[in-house]
Design a protein that fits this description.
Blueprint (H helix, E strand, L loop, with lengths): L5 H11 L2 E6 L6 E5 L1 H18 L5 E6 L5 H16 L3 E7 L8 H14 L4 E10 L2 E8 L9 E6 L2 E7 L1
Length: about 170
């Protein structure tokens, strides 16, 4: 409708049986629309809900090790860490020392280095390992997934040859 005085805009809104809603108060002159305010609020809430759904939430998962963790237990925990990283969660790997185990900190450092090596294909180290009290802590983030520009995803299965699949 162009630039209209406030009094005229209010009159036009009353005649239409709608509300005069200020959409952009910072613009000069302020931008207003004649519409149903209840419907406008509902649409804004709907947009916020959609934006919230599209946000990727990232949870923090924590896995505890001991410096004397056996190989099978280690592999089992690494398998769980892989699952967490594939789901897009952060992982906090903690090596806890009890009692006299503090004398064997080098075993804990070796364990963390082995963990970093085993997960380098899926994870990025967010914080380098550091000793906090009686625990050695490191944070792992999932590697960002490469986005394909063409919209074609490559499907791969160990039993089948590589083939392209439309998304």
């Amino acid at each position: 409708m162009g630039v209209v005085s406030t009094r005229d805009a209010l009159r036009m809104a009353r005649e239409a049986g709608l509300d005069l809603v200020e959409v952009s108060p910072t613009a000069r002159p302020p931008v207003c629309k004649i519409l149903d305010f209840g419907k406008y609020k509902y649409q804004q809430q709907k947009k916020q809900r959609e934006a919230k759904k599209k946000q990727q939430s990232q949870h923090l998962k924590e896995i505890h090790f001991r410096p004397i963790t056996d190989e099978h237990d280690y592999q089992f925990k690494v398998k769980h860490i892989r699952e967490f990283l594939e789901e897009g969660d952060k992982v906090k790997a903690t090596v806890k020392f009890r009692g006299r185990e503090m004398m064997y900190q080098d075993a804990g450092w070796k364990l963390v280095e082995k963990l970093k090596q085993d997960l380098q294909d899926l994870a990025v180290v967010e914080s380098q390992p550091k000793l906090e009290g009686k625990s050695l802590v490191t944070m792992l983030l999932p590697k960002p997934k490469p986005k394909s520009k063409s919209g074609v995803k490559v499907a791969q299965n160990e039993n089948q040859p590589q083939r392209r699949q439309e998304v």
